[in-house]
Amino acid sequence: MKLTFWGAARQVSGSMFLLELEDDYRILIDCGLDLEKERSKKNGQHLSLVNGVPQQASAAHAIFPFEASMVNVVLLTHAHIDHSGNIPNLFREGYEGQVLCTSPTYELSELLLMDSASLHRRRLNAFSKKKNKKNKKSSLSPSDLAEMYLEHNVKESLERFVPIAFNKKFKLKKGVEVTFNPAGHLLGAANVILEITENGEKKTLAFSGDIGRYDYPLHIDPQPLPQVDYLVCESTYGNRRHDYGRKSAIIDAEERLSEIIQKTCVDIPGRLIIPAFSVGRTQALLYTLKKLCVKKQLPPIKVFSDSPLAHKSTETYIKYHRFLNSEAQQFQEEYDDLFDFENLEYIEDLKTSKKVANHNEPCIIISSSGMIEGGRIQYHVRTNLSNPYCTILMIGYAAEGTIGHRLLQGEKTIRIEDKEVAVLANIARIDAFSGHGDLDDLLGFVKHQNPQALKKVFLVHGENESLEHFKALLETEGYQVEIPTKGQSFEL
């Protein structure tokens, strides 16, 4: 069999791995959006729209480096867009098979993919208006347009999703079985384990997806894998450890958040703005605030949750609370709710969102996206960035080049929505809410495998420094390690 790395190879996003068996049966593990890809834009080139709908990509702007119609099945580790975001395009390009994942992953994927489709529609509408005005400058290249799917594309792909239970073998075909192992990173997140028999020889492969943290708010701990022959492992935190020391993530999250709220909203008093991803991070944050409220450690101030996608995701977390950790389930039984508390207000419409940005009393504003790239959070940050009584609290990973990363690097001015803004607000950071396992978690995950029995570890989903550092540590433990490049294939 042959394994080819078509995404998340020497970079963090775009997870996509193609496994081809000897009988030409093809399995695609994840089909994510490459968030780091630099798209070349050629002046004067435009892709035609028919009734406002982007057409199938031409050969010159092909979305996939393989024939989509030749794939037999897709296995989805979890819902995050860098793992799921290209699934509608796979169907547009001719894929006719199924997408296997857990039930929570199916529902969260629907929310995230519909949100992406809505964003595509808004961008296409803006692009069409510019074309009608004969504006020669366009922010969309032909390849951009080719990759944009709409709501009906998402609905068509969702009809082919098949929910699979955790820890139960599912037969894909004779000699090929898959098991979804709890990964802990997100509600419904899984490692994918494949058992394949070819020519009388059995081989096992595991794909980590994203590995969660131990003792994290809401999410279960990542479960160890059985012994496998080949392991594809993420490396996001391959050279870093979380900064809470020996404390659990749950204890550290409560303590650090309480300290920052007291300092920002009571001692000054001022405004606390928290950029948070809508799926996973916002729920962990609201849950922690709820627990502080129950313990009477949350000041009587307004907390605004300003993300319609986050609200829908929270409903999914409530629906599937049995998939959460035992502490969260016990909390649910005792208080009948994981997230709602006094003074919490959900913001739906954009008009109210803009009013909240200028709320004249101490408050907490939680909005997406977590890296401050797009979404309502940009308006909140732009409005408050020059306010010395405001604190902007980063609670997760921010990729290089994003506004969040630039704030953490201490830049004195930030350009947001074509406006240069002086940074006078306090910029704070805690990683207690990061959903990724750190170096120790990653090492522990791999070291469940016997280095004499594990034939190869492939490291993906990480920046070069993380990949190389993690590789060096694993090699000292006796593991055979590869860091694939995009498009590189390996015979297994």
Identify the CATH homologous superfamily of the largest domain: Ribonuclease Z/Hydroxyacylglutathione hydrolase-like
DSSP helical segment count: 14
Terminal CA distance: 6 Å
Going by CATH, the architecture of the largest domain would be: 4-Layer Sandwich
What fraction, in percent, of the residue positions are helical? 25-40%
Query: Largest beta sheet: what is the strand line-up?
Result: 8-7-6-3-2-1-24
By oligomeric state, this entry counts as single chain
Approximate shape: globular
As for the CATH topology of the largest domain, it is: Metallo-beta-lactamase, Chain A
Q: What's the CATH C level of the largest domain?
A: Alpha Beta
Major beta sheet, specifics?
7 strands, mixed
Strand content: 15-25%
Structural category is alpha/beta
Q: Could you tell me the radius of gyration in angstroms?
A: 23 Å
